[in-house]
Design a protein that fits this description.
alpha+beta; 2 domains; four-stranded antiparallel sheet; 8 helices; disordered C terminus
C-alpha cells in the first residue's frame, strides 16, 4: 500500500482530507478484493488518515444528473463529499439498489463512483450525542469537518461495536449515520516523508500497518491522535 499522494496527487496534506481527491485515493487503498473496493476516513492524524475499507454490495459510476434527482444541490462531482451529495447518494442507493447506505469514492467530470453497502446499524444520531464523543462536533454546520468524522467513528465503535461510520444525511439537530465493520482498518500517511509529525510520532507511524478492526491498540492510538490534534481543523 502506497501513501495517499501516490494514490492521488491531490491528496497530499491534511487540509485536503475531505476532498474528492482523497476519496479517490481511499478507493484505491481499498480496491483489492480482500479489502472490499471502497473506503472512508475515520480519524485524521498528524500526517495520516485512518481509513476503514468496506465490501460494497453495489459499486459503479453514477451521473451527477441522476444524483440531482435526489438532491438538486448535488450538482457537481466536486461536491461529492459534501452533505448535499451525501444525502443524494444514500437516497440513490436505497431507491435504485435497495441498499440503505452509500459513500462517494472517485469522480470523473460528470459522474461519481458510488459504493452502496449494508451497514451493521443505521439511524439518526443527535448532535448532542456526538458531541459527547468529540466536543467540537457541536453543530450541523460541522458535518464535513474532521471533528464530526471522528465523533461518528467513535460513536459507532462505542454504541454499535462497529469500528467505522459515515454520515448519510444532515438535519438541524442530528445526523443520519451508517455504522459498519470494516474489512480492514489502516493508518495511511499522506506522503512518505510524514512531514507534519513530531519526531516521536514520526517514529511511531512511519512504518504504518494495516490492522484488523478488532485491534484494541489501534483504537487507543486513534484516541491519542485525536487528543494531539484537538483544536486543529475541527
Amino acid at each position: 500500500m502506497y501513501p495517499l499522494m501516490v494514490q492521488n496527487s491531490g491528496c497530499n496534506k491534511i487540509n485536503n482530507f475531505g476532498s474528492p481527491s482523497c476519496a479517490a485515493a481511499m478507493q484505491k487503498v481499498c480496491s483489492s478484493p480482500e479489502r472490499g473496493g471502497a473506503g472512508m476516513s475515520q480519524e485524521l492524524g498528524p500526517d495520516y488518515l485512518s481509513i476503514a475499507c468496506v465490501k460494497a454490495s453495489w459499486q459503479g459510476n453514477v451521473g451527477i444528473s441522476q444524483l440531482q434527482n435526489y438532491n438538486s444541490r448535488c450538482n457537481s462531482p466536486s461536491l461529492s463529499q459534501s452533505s448535499v451529495c451525501l444525502s443524494a447518494i444514500q437516497s440513490y442507493c436505497q431507491a435504485k439498489h435497495s441498499i440503505n447506505a452509500g459513500m462517494a469514492q472517485g469522480t470523473t467530470a460528470q459522474s461519481v463512483n458510488i459504493a452502496c453497502f449494508r451497514p451493521k446499524w443505521s439511524g439518526k444520531v443527535a448532535i448532542n450525542t456526538l458531541k459527547q464523543q468529540f466536543s467540537r462536533c457541536n453543530q450541523s454546520a460541522k458535518a464535513e469537518k474532521s471533528g464530526c468524522m471522528a465523533a461518528v467513528h467513535r460513536y459507532c465503535r462505542s454504541s454499535h461495536s462497529a469500528n467505522a461510520g459515515v454520515i448519510q444525511s444532515v438535519s438541524a439537530d442530528s445526523f443520519g449515520v451508517a455504522c459498519y465493520s470494516p474489512t480492514i482498518f489502516s493508518n495511511v500517511p499522506f506522503d512518505s516523508n510524514v512531514a507534519f509529525a513530531s519526531l516521536q510520532r514520526r517514529n511511531q507511524i512511519i512504518n504504518y500497518t494495516s490492522t484488523p478492526q478488532q485491534n484494541s491498540n489501534q483504537a487507543d492510538f486513534e484516541e491519542e491522535a485525536g487528543r494531539l490534534l484537538e483544536g486543529f481543523l475541527y
